[in-house]
Write a structure and sequence with these properties.
The structure is a single chain. The protein is mainly beta and 144 residues long. Helix content is 5%, strand content 36%. It is built from one helix and eleven strands, in the order E-E-E-H-E-E-E-E-E-E-E-E. Strands 6-7-8-9-4-3-10-11 form an eight-stranded mixed beta sheet. A three-stranded antiparallel beta sheet has the order 1-2-5, with no helix packed on it. The longest helix is centred in the first third of the chain and has 7 residues. The chain is globular, with a radius of gyration of 14 Å. The chain binds zinc ion (2 copies). The site of one zinc ion has 6 residues, from helix 1.
């Protein structure tokens, strides 16, 4: 699978040579901040398979899970393009809305539903995980 995408102003572009390890809708409070009232949808890839062109700014946070996260966004248009975590640098989470064709990746689960507001539109067909699920490649990973 090859996927391409980038930010709103096109200063940042990426090309992905692999298939997603998983993809999830996330309603954690930080995703609500950047999702402007919704959550975010993120597809996880091997970092080695993601090639980024253009400069990304980074914002360091400590997630609700306790993990140090780097939120990477375009300094010109502010689009959040991807995120990485300190404990697992081998994985890169791409914001699915930045794909040139977001139809090509769909979420397999909804996570952090415990943090979602009562009016959140959550796909009833997908498994719900109240908080942070285990990382990809572990036995308990839903949908894989
Ligand atoms: Zn941009
Ligand atoms: Zn989140």
């Amino acid at each position: 699978m090859e996927l391409t995408g980038g930010c709103l102003c096109k200063a940042v572009r990426y090309r992905i040579s692999g298939s997603p390890l998983t993809a999830r809708a996330c309603w954690c409070r930080m995703c609500q901040q950047i999702g402007a009232g919704s959550g975010t949808v993120n597809a996880m890839f091997q970092t080695a398979e993601v090639a980024v062109e253009g400069e990304l700014c980074e914002y360091r946070t400590v997630a609700d899970s306790g993990n140090v996260m780097y939120w990477r966004f375009c300094p010109r248009c502010g689009t959040h393009v991807l995120a990485t975590s300190e404990p697992r640098p081998q994985f890169t989470a791409i914001r699915v809305g930045t794909l040139d064709d977001p139809e090509r990746v769909r979420p397999l689960a909804t996570i952090w539903t415990s943090a979602a507001p009562s009016w959140a539109a959550i796909d009833p067909a997908l498994p719900r995980i109240e908080q942070q699920p285990p990382p990809p490649g572990t036995a308990a990973e839903p949908g894989r």
